[in-house]
Automatic annotation (TrEMBL):
Entries under InterPro entries matching the protein: DEAD/DEAH_box_helicase_dom, DEAD/DEAH_RhlB, DEAD_box_RNA_helicase, DEAD_helicase_RhlE, Helicase_ATP-bd, Helicase_C-like, RNA-helicase_DEAD-box_CS, RNA_helicase_DEAD_Q_motif
PROSITE patterns registered for this protein in UniProt: DEAD_ATP_HELICASE, HELICASE_ATP_BIND_1, HELICASE_CTER, Q_MOTIF
Protein family membership: Belongs to the DEAD box helicase family. RhlE subfamily.
Species name: Ignatzschineria rhizosphaerae
EC class name: hydrolase
Designated name of the protein: ATP-dependent RNA helicase RhlE
Length: 508
């Protein structure tokens, strides 16, 4: 089958051909006709199978055929694509720009971690298709910078990842702001119980497309597993990179600090590496990814924020330096290699602490990952397993539901992961401000008031002592009457002014 048989416009077909695509993938063959029919869609396929083109191509077709109902003013947002991470949002927009090359539709991507003002200026010019992370979208909507009242198409890409990251409440808020009459497209790498529940509430009589339903790894990926002591993982990784001459390697770590430490170690050994994670600025993340794609650095060390946002043609090697706490994330990680028709290799370094995680992953895969022994790196059998430190924002095994609940309670914000800008910082500052207010509440606001004139003698004598105030330059001034004893209820109007506490800022 060719793209010519899918009913796409000549302009789109020309752009697809120039991008180097000749035949649609299975998910594209099944999804594109359903979207063009105007039906809601629930699609499940492995990462790297072409899901993005499965919804961007028919959206471009539909929007180019149908003019906006708004005759005057700026172009309204007619198609909204939600993505869990900045990197994935940027990747979707890159594909849109390529496919939209010969059309006159306007596209824009917005996410946090960068200045909001340029995004507001571009929105004023009008946008047909908007790709966004949920947090930044809500920030812009709150400032009346984006109008969602005329959205005709809603796409949730990597929906399972958005739920894992705690975005369900933001998704509901976005849905409440767009018209009820619209076409909904839900794309996911897995079909979990939570995804099915979301689809039931969001979609209307949807068509269902499933590719590789059983959530196994891609056949194009060769897997290998090395048992090694935890404190020798870095040494083994550098040995593999240098000994087998790996030139482009994506390495996944469990924590941000672990990613930083591994990056420093590799650079000290002469292996060029950069780290990408939630604590890095968007500029640093973009530069690191660009350098990795062009080959300026050999190793990109990432946390799971990049598991669904990195799309590199023919990436040869992926390494699980730490096994993920959620078995499904293993599939998403190694799905960065072996994409489309290319092949790749996925290597996992496993210490004694991770044996339980390995069993869960192999249970999901329904197969055993091939073991490889490396001479000189045999694990010490006397070392006992210790609890795994997941980091503050990590999800423990089997606790993804609890993680999402903790996000909703404000204990941990997903915004740092997907880049909603300063929203999470504001919420943390608000929380701290609220706690300080409660701790330092004035007597007027307290439920345990002291009766007037009930001061002890010590309190009265203390109140008669001169009050010492530090002025400018460190000078100390004594104030107050040192010789006259006044009743405690006198001089009420001379009470020192209390500093007015600023109320916590509510994000809304």
């Amino acid at each position: 089958m060719s793209f010519n048989t899918l009913g796409l416009r000549d302009e789109i077909l020309t752009a697809i051909s120039e991008a180097g695509y000749t035949e649609p993938t299975p998910i594209q063959q099944q999804a594109i006709p359903v979207v063009l029919q105007g039906r809601d869609l629930m699609a499940c396929a492995q990462t790297g199978t072409g899901k993005t083109a499965g919804f961007t191509l028919p959206l471009l077709q539909l929007l180019s055929q149908k003019q906006s109902s708004k005759k005057t003013g700026r172009r309204p947002v007619r198609a909204l694509i939600l993505s869990p991470t900045r990197e994935l949002a940027a990747q979707i927009h890159e594909n849109l720009v390529a496919y939209n090359k010969y059309l006159k539709l306007r596209t824009l991507v917005i996410f946090g971690g960068v200045s909001i003002n340029p995004q507001m200026m571009k929105l004023r010019g009008g946008v047909d298709i908007l790709v966004a992370t949920p947090g930044r979208l809500l920030d812009l909507e709150k400032q009346n910078a984006v109008d969602l009242s005329q959205v005709e198409y809603l796409v949730l890409d990597e929906a399972d990842r958005m739920l894992d990251m705690g975005f369900i409440h933001d998704i509901r808020r976005v849905i409440a702001k767009i018209p009820a009459k619209r076409q909904n497209l839900l794309f996911s790498a897995t079909f979990s119980k939570e995804i099915t529940e979301l689809a039931t509430k969001l979609l209307h009589n949807p068509a269902s497309v499933e590719i590789e339903r059983h959530q196994t790894s891609s056949a194009q990926v060769t897997q290998a597993l090395y048992f090694v002591d935890k404190n020798r993982k870095r040494e083994l990784l550098s040995h593999l990179i240098e000994g087998e001459n790996w030139q482009q390697v994506l390495v996944f770590c469990r924590t941000k600090h672990g990613a930083n430490r591994l990056t420093e170690y590799l650079n000290e050994r002469g292996i060029s590496a950069s780290a990408i994670h939630g604590n890095k600025s968007q500029g640093a993340r973009t530069r690191a990814l660009a350098d990795f794609k062009t080959g300026d650095i050999r190793v990109l060390v990432a946390t799971d924020i990049a598991a669904r946002g990195i799309d590199i043609a023919e990436l040869p090697f992926v390494v699980n330096f730490d096994l993920p706490s959620v078995p499904e994330d293993y599939v998403h990680r190694i799905g960065r290699t072996g994409r489309a028709e290319s092949t790749g290799k996925a290597v996992s370094l496993v210490c004694v602490d991770e044996h339980k995680l390995l069993k869960d992953i192999e249970r999901l895969l329904k197969t055993e990952i091939p073991r490889v022994e490396m001479a000189g790196f045999e694990p010490d059998p006397s070392i006992k397993a210790e609890p795994i430190e997941n980091g503050r924002n990590s999800r423990g095994r089997g606790n993804s539901r609890n993680s999402r609940n903790s996000h909703s309670r404000g204990q941990s914000s997903p915004r740092n992961s997907e880049g909603a800008g300063n929203s999470s910082n504001r919420s943390r500052r608000s929380s701290r401000a609220g706690n300080n207010t409660d701790a330092g509440k004035s007597p007027e606001g307290s439920s345990h008031k002291k009766p007037r004139n009930s001061q002890s003698k010590n309190d009265q004598s203390a109140s008669n002592k001169p009050k010492r105030h530090e002025g400018k330059g460190g000078q100390v001034k004594a104030t107050g009457n040192q010789t006259t004893n006044r009743p405690s209820n006198e001089g009420a109007s001379e009470k020192p002014k209390r500093r007015r506490q600023r109320a916590p800022r509510d994000r809304g």
